[in-house]
Amino acid sequence: MSQARLSVVIPCYNEEKTLDSIVERVLAADRCGLGLEIVIVDDGSKDRSVAVMRDLAARHAEIVVVEHGINQGKGAALRSGFARARGDIVLVQDADLEYSPIDYPKLLKPFLDGRADVVFGSRFKGGEETRVLYFWHSVANRVLTLASNMFTDLNLTDMETCYKAFRREVIQRIRLVENRFGIEPEITAKIARLTPRPRVYEVGISYSGRTYEEGKKIGWRDGFRALYCILRYNLAR
Q: What does the alpha-carbon distance between residue 14 and residue 48 come to, in Å, rounded to a whole number?
């Protein structure tokens, strides 16, 4: 895949403080020689995110902008981004600074070697720098990953990770319906149910999580929704 093109999909909601920085880091991270497309989906932000996004698009030809008139959730933003992506590989990047594009070479290597169809970036695989934050969040992530693995028969360590990358034909085969953070277990379940099953890899990534004071959005209700989604999308036929 030496001539492969990369689409980075960035869902954005009220991220005016970090959007410019993360886009500049994405632009600087293309060290694998891939053509780069950045699809920013603003999900009805109430701050200046749209203005920042439009300014970035005016300065960088690689950027495509999609605007939702009202807030629908991360899942809805990802659906719009996946539908618009034109790259051979599609990678999800949050608009905050929790996940670093410096990890792109590791995420992309299994694709470029011709070994992978899907790659997850794990915050728990070890050997990488991780900010120490909420104990019960890490417990919930591991419990949800275990529950997901029991149904999908995958041996992931971090199902809830933002960093998921796909061959475009794989992610565009899946019909996604979740609007919020339930999109993570939904994607995982539906990837596992594809025939033939895609080749899934996992690599360790760094992680600099935010506190709620710094803008973290996911809450305990999303954890219960994730458990519901694990059951719904793995048991539905």
A: 7
pLDDT tens figures, 53-109 = 999 999 999 999 999 999 999 999 999 999 999 999 999 999 999 999 999 999 999
Beta bridge partner(s), residue 5? 35
CATH of the domain at 29: 3.90.550.10
Distance between the two ends of the chain, CA-based, in angstroms? Answer: 35
| Strand, helix or coil for residue 118 | strand
Asked if the structure places residue 90 within a domain, the reply is yes
pLDDT of 133 reads 64
Residue 83 lies in a domain: yes
Strands 35-43 and 5-12, how do they pair? parallel
Rounded to the nearest 10 degrees, how much is the dihedral formed by the CA atoms of 69, 10, 156, 211?
A: -80
pTM of the model: 0.92
Secondary element (H or E) of residue 68: strand 63-68
For residue 105, give every residue at least 6 positions away whose Cβ sits within 8 Å of its Cβ, in sequence order, or none.
31, 32
Peptide bond into 196 cis (omega under 30): yes
The total domain count for the chain is: 1
Q: Helix 183-192 crosses helix 220-235 at what angle (to 10 degrees)? A: 20
Alpha-carbon distance of 99 to 107, in angstroms, equals: 12
Which domain, by its residues, includes 94? 5-132+158-179+197-213
What distance in Å separates the CA atoms of residue 11 and residue 14, rounded to the nearest whole number?
10
> What's phi and psi for 89, nearest 5 deg?
-120, 135
Residues facing residue 6 across a β-bridge:
36, 89
Better-scored residue on pLDDT, 136 or 18 = 18
